[in-house]
Amino acid sequence: MSVNDSRTQHWQALSGEHHLAPFSDYGQLKEKGPRIITRAQGVHLWDSEGQKILDGMAGLWCVAIGYGREELVDAAQRQMRELPYYNLFFQTAHPPALELAHAITEVAPEGMSHVFFTGSGSEGNDTVLRMVRHYWALKGKPQKQTLIGRINGYHGSTVAGASLGGMSGMHAQGGLPIPGIAHIPQPYWYGEGGDMTPEAFGIWAAEQLEQKILELGEDQVAAFIAEPIQGAGGVIIPPDSYWPKIKEILARYDILFVADEVICGFGRTGEWFGSDYYDLKPDLMTIAKGLTSGYIPMGGVIVRDSVAQVLAEGGEFTHGFTYSGHPVAAAVGLENLRILREERIIERARTETAPYLQQRLRELQDHPLVGEVRGLGMLGAIELVKDKATRSRYEGQGVGMICRNFCFANGLVMRAVGDTMIIAPPLVISHEEIDELVEKARRCLDLTLQSLERAIDR
Ligand code: PMP
After folding, report:
1. From the CA of 12, how far away is ligand 1's center (Å)?
2. Predicted confidence (pLDDT) per residue in 13-51, tens digit
3. pTM higher than 0.85, yes or no?
4. DSSP state of 392
5. CB under 6 Å to ligand 1: residues?
6. Cα(200)–Cα(205) distance, rounded to whole angstroms?
7. From the centroid of its chain, how far is CA 55?
8. For 47-75, what is the mean pLDDT?
9. CB atoms < 10 A from the CB of 249, how many?
10. What burial class does residue 335 get, using C-beta atoms within 10 Å of its C-beta: 0-12 exposed, 13-18 middle, 19+ buried?
11. Of 117, 154, 163, 302, best ligand 1 pocket probe by most atoms within 8 Å of the beta carbon
């Protein structure tokens, strides 16, 4: 047994004995043990066995500028020496949080120049829930309490986050959703559009919002929350007709619009925010992930000035976290934003590398297992099917997980959402690394198909 093997076994034993992992099947984890990731550089990870792996998911959609940027390490170290912690409660503040709030609003859509900091995206959405209800109470409409989210949307794992999201597996545990939250269907044409054209389906899905508002009563509805592109739900890119129709509906009713930009924010679509890409003009935007490139936890809510104005006149907002705007996280966030801006990383993705990624990904469309390849910016999805014409799946065979496991074994992270493979690489991925990603993806699709054929032969 090599030294690496014994270290891996040691860590895997610790996992089994002491660690309750997030979003993991505990039975499977105990049987096989986790893969132990030990270091990273650029767009690559290394595991404890020394295998080099291309990280097609940028961690969990977050490592925008890639791994190993010393500038972020230095920023954290400097801030830890200067002021490792102080809070923003009770009329105190510190320079990094204020400077970061300013820097964020420089890149945010016009008219959104206020930021509330949190420790994560989930806390951001918990903040959203309380903030929009508080806003309506201050406006003299306390009955406007209900938030509308979407089935299969993802807004985090806290009680409010998981309730706003529409993941049935999450609702099944812990008695969710909490009251005061309603859900409408998602704009997932490939999976749910049936015989409709994408355009007609997009209109239908948007109209569900209006129906829900009418059913609940406009005077009861506080806000609609949605990801510009659903990430965890399977990189669901709405038909072109969807967002314009949603905007038209929102303009008719007096409710707030919350864009959850936790994945789309900070360049994933090739624009600073998904709301820029689709011209959404939201009232609030939840942020996290790319804000610090995941080097340190941080989230927040960017708030439109008209909303901030009402809050400003409302006395105390009785809400906040010990780590809201943590100075070390804020210093790292500032440095991350500086790098994104000065190195023009988002512009380069938009004009050079994302178009190349999209072109190369679509070459996989000819693979027998692939029903659809879709993508936008640095996001992609590959639908695995049994029959391309009918879009029917390999029911119950866990094809996505089979493919994901082949990917890991062959040096690529692609995530499986059911039988949809998804990617969201660091924004700094190069042309050569995109070639590596697509070639490895094809090889893993081949291996997946072969394993399915072997299963049928048996
Ligand atoms: N919103 C969206 C759209 C997300 O994708 C996520 C995380 N994947 C969250 C919220 C929750 O963020 P966090 O895990 O930082 O709490």
Report:
1. 27
2. 999 999 999 999 999 999 999 999 999 999 999 999 999
3. yes
4. B
5. 60, 120-122, 125, 154-156, 227, 231-232, 260, 262-263, 288, 299
6. 9
7. 16
8. 98
9. 18
10. buried
11. 154
